[in-house]
Automatic annotation (TrEMBL):
Positions of the UniProt region annotated as Disordered: 1-22
Pfam families with a match to the protein in the record: Glyoxalase, Glyoxalase_6
One function term, GO molecular function aspect: dioxygenase activity
Gene3D superfamilies the UniProt entry points to: 2,3-Dihydroxybiphenyl 1,2-Dioxygenase, domain 1
Protein name: Glyoxalase/bleomycin resistance/extradiol dioxygenase family protein
InterPro entries: Anthracycline_SecMetBiosynth, Glyas_Bleomycin-R_OHBP_Dase, Glyas_Fos-R_dOase_dom, Glyoxalase_6, VOC_core
Taxonomic superkingdom: Bacteria
PROSITE patterns in the record: VOC
Alphabetized UniProt keyword annotations: Dioxygenase, Oxidoreductase
Domain VOC intervals: 22-135, 149-264
Length: 266
């Protein structure tokens, strides 16, 4: 396995990903937990540790012993879409949830205590789902910048204008629109640093999904990772191609959870 690079200690210098408003965790709720863990374990080299101990309802995905993501079991009577959900850090999840409501969003779960912190799950005015996390014992993803770790989160929506003010009001982002007449994109920044993006795709938005957050995972080699995805029962949705940020492809796991693979330009 690759050598893991730790993010900053929460008691020391805080990495920007864990400052309020920064993506700090990704979670996947699925119907077939064991099969899903096998898929991602083989693809990314993840190992899994049930949380709380000795239960199978939710597990941390570990890379070199550091938490990178979570995978849980959907209730059998809930026919919900299987999708990766990013969580954004908050210093006060209750206050952030209240701001979500006042800004036109919806809080579907919580706020509630979750062992290592406090969380809520919400949706923006367009319906895109995201989480809010106030870490206590666990600030969030423990490593970054190596294959198998979350690299970026981007909201795919109809147009950026309809939702960026919502996220600006909830998390205090600085907005940086793309300087292009034919590319509808806004970078969400904290202290001048891009932490996430909003991409308006107009009528190209998948009708079966609606607006949604898309998580990118770092890959050592994107084309090889795509082949591995299909060998493991997943699907290729957008072929590997070069972008200004690195080589990237979009895929889905065997249950249909969509994510992207990227080899980030350094």
């Amino acid at each position: 396995m690759t050598e893991a690079r730790e993010s900053a200690d929460p008691n020391g210098t805080t990495h920007a990903r864990h400052t309020p408003g920064s993506p700090c965790w990704v979670s996947l709720m699925t119907h077939e937990t064991a099969a899903t863990q096998d898929f991602y374990g083989t693809l990314f080299g993840w190992e899994f540790q049930p949380r709380p101990p000795r239960t199978g309802s939710y597990a941390w995905a570990l890379l070199d012993g550091h938490e990178v993501a979570g995978i849980g079991q959907l209730p059998p009577d809930r026919h919900l879409p299987v999708a990766w959900t990013p969580y954004f850090a908050s210093a006060d999840v209750d206050r952030t949830a209240e701001t979500v409501r006042h800004s036109g969003g919806t809080v579907g779960v919580g706020p509630l205590d979750a062992g290592a912190g406090r969380l809520a799950i919400a949706s923006d005015p367009s319906g895109a789902v995201f989480g809010i996390w106030q870490g206590v014992a666990r600030p969030g993803t423990g490593i970054t910048g190596v294959p198998g770790t979350p690299a970026w989160n981007e909201l795919v929506t109809r147009d950026t204008e309809s939702v960026v003010k919502f996220y600006e009001g909830v998390f205090g982002y600085e907005l940086e629109p793309a300087v292009s007449a034919d590319f509808d994109h806004v970078a969400l920044r904290i202290d001048g640093r891009p932490v996430a993006g909003v991409h308006g795709v107009g009528n190209a938005l998948p009708r079966d999904r609606g607006p949604h957050w898309l998580t990118y995972f770092e890959a050592a080699e994107v084309d090889g990772a795509v082949r591995r995805v299909t060998e493991l029962g997943g699907r290729l949705l957008r072929a590997a191609h070069d972008s200004p940020y690195g080589r990237v492809a979009t895929v889905a796991d065997p249950e249909g959870a969509v994510f992207s693979l990227i080899r980030t330009v350094t």
